[in-house]
Amino acid sequence: MRVYFTLFLIIITSINFFAQELNYKIEENISYYPTNESGLTAYQRAQCRLDIYWPTRKKDVPVIIWFHGGGLTGGSKEIPQALKDKGYCIVGVGYRLSPQVKAATSIDDATAAIAWVFENIARYNGNSKSIFVSGHSAGGYLALMSVMDKSRLKSYEIDANKVAGLIPFSGHTITHFTIRAERGIPGEQPIIDEFAPLYYVRKDAPPTLLITGDRELEMLGRYEENAYFYRMMKVAGQEKIKHYEMQGYGHNMTSPAFPLLIDFIEKFKE
């Protein structure tokens, strides 16, 4: 009888423990530009906001900044369901979109959002030394651009190499097709300039996991440009980089890719 009572106490204690661990809160529509800044447009005030989903009873947890896809012309901030309740602080970021602004403005917004997270995430039990930047498609491109071009975060007095990891899902590594379209350049013509992550290949970049769909099912050239980025980073001397091809999946390969993101975070978190 005493054995059963002991087991009962263990089970009840475990249930209470996990109940506490899985207590999460969400705060929505936080502006990541100073709201008292007079130069902000109405569109910027409305669009440049983020949502935070975090565990309330656990401190210094890894942080995932997630940028939505949509070709820099559509989509809205989101916190992927697959990343919830895993012990992380999740930040879903909104940003301005073309044609309301030039598409490159999205990169400015992404950088501002990352800087805000570095400065404020401790209030939400996040660890500023364990910030991972990710996103799908256009969001993957923004993740890469805002960190690979070190000058962007440097303008906020943040060293881009303090980012714990980069995990773009099917992101452009050449200049984004919407930026090219604004210049009258067709999608079949690749460009590598200051708006291409490939332009900033360097040895000292944060650990990186490139995830793409099957090369035969992906969007035009998306697998190949990521493979080239991977190769050039290796040539530059970056050893902490991998490229994973989700065989059998096309561009919308987020669901089976999320476990790879989680494994990556567990490997490189502080």
TrEMBL record:
Gene3D superfamilies: alpha/beta hydrolase. It holds the Pfam family BD-FAE. Residues 50-215 form the BD-FAE-like domain. Coiled coil: none annotated. Keywords: Hydrolase. GO terms for molecular function: hydrolase activity. It comes from the Bacteria. This is Acetyl esterase/lipase. It comes from Leeuwenhoekiella aequorea.
